[in-house]
Here is the input.
Amino acid sequence: MIKIPMFPLSIFPLPGEMVPLHIYEPRYRQLLEDAENKDMAFGIYYNHVSNIEKLGSLVKLESVIKRHSNGEADIIVKCVDLLSMSKLFRTFRDKLYPGAEVELWNVDLSEPMDNTLRQHFSEYMGVMHLSHPEKSISIFDVANDLNLGFEDRLKFVQLPDDRKSPFIITRLKYQIALLKEAEKAKDVYHLN
Here is the structure.
């Protein structure tokens, strides 16, 4: 277990995902300052009733997009790992922002997806008229491209490793079917 700064939010970023945040509360402006000056990671605890396992994301500051004259800021963070939280503290050490006792998952983003998933993902990208590099990308990259809802994200990360790929393939097939139906509908209706 380690203690880290924590930012409770109603979002659940997955490893590899970039997330924009608007920082306005004084305590989180202090967290931003520390993240910049100390190059430290912090947690985003998925603050939702469905998160009974108390899961969250470990993120690092990627960039500050804009600083507002009133001290607020628009930033981009990147999820680098997942975490399980055991305790949430009102403050982290002598800081204004919260902290938590967590266990990191050590997600390996260099582990490539399996071939069946790669085939379905290639079909999905083709239907979307997008190309993707042929490099080995992880299952989390596919999950991020699908833009899963928060409930699906929770289900996905809690699945055993051998069930993750079938779960994502099911979501890919559903999206492919929807996209193909939308494409057919375009051909049926003619503008006058």
The first helix runs from residue 26 to 38. The chain has five helices and six strands. The chain has two domains: 2-104, 115-188.
